[in-house]
């Protein structure tokens, strides 16, 4: 069993769900994760594909919280992504991704999986890296991104069937692997007062 991982910016230690090719805590608020080839967490709604082998580093965070990070993936192949991840169990989880689209454009993508079935929603094209944020408030979760314009843009507001561990994931579904850098990692126990207000 791998040893728990400590990131000083977070109030709890983290543990692995799936083992990475490599990882390093590179500072008090930074982390890098290398995913191997053909790694993903996705259950296609048409029932043809179910895969759950991407490495994720997760913490149990009590109560309401907001977790943010600047996400900088290598993005070598289509669907390579750096992800902020929520994990209840193997059938219920959610991803906020900076992902390489089939058009070769870094894109904000969200995926919510309930009862073993994923959805998939492409939202905004970005330039290379992005600030991503996940929030739990009561029984609800919110995904936001900040594109450097001073606003946190709401990407998704949803529920999961139970409290989720939260953390960081790297994936390379069609590629040979990639490394994701997570920097400016920040945690607070106070969620935004208005999830749609941009703060």
Task: Tell me what you see in this structure.
This protein has strands at 14-17, 22-27, 30-35, 41-43, 50-52, 56-59, 65-73, 81-89, 92-100, 106-114, 117-118, 121-125, 130-137, 140-146, 152-159, 165-171, 178-188. The chain has 199 residues and is mainly beta. It has a domain at 14-62 and 70-129 and 159-183: Jelly Rolls, CATH 2.60.120. The strands form three sheets. Strands 1, 6, 8, 9, 10, 11, 12 and 16 form an eight-stranded antiparallel β-sheet that branches. Strands 2-3-17-7-13-14-15 form a seven-stranded antiparallel β-sheet, with no helix packed on it. It has a two-stranded antiparallel sheet with strand order 4-5. It is globular. It starts with 13 loop residues before the first strand and ends in an 11-residue tail after the last strand. The model has no long low-confidence stretch (mean pLDDT 95). It holds the Pfam family DUF1349.
> If you compute it from the alpha carbons, what radius of gyration comes out, rounded to the nearest whole angstrom?
15 Å
The chain-level mean pLDDT equals 95
User: Approximately how much beta-strand content do the residues carry?
Assistant: over 45%
Helix vs. strand class: mainly beta
Number of DSSP-assigned strands: 17
Basic shape: globular
Query: What is the highest CATH level, the class of the domain at 14-62 and 70-129 and 159-183?
Result: Mainly Beta
**CATH architecture descriptor text of the domain at 14-62 and 70-129 and 159-183:** Sandwich
Helix content: under 10%
Count of helix runs: 0
What is the string of SSEs from the N terminus onward? EEEEEEEEEEEEEEEEE
Largest sheet features? 8 strands, antiparallel
**Unreliable sequence segments:** none
Organism: Thermobifida fusca TM51
Pfam families: DUF1349
Protein name: DUF1349 domain-containing protein
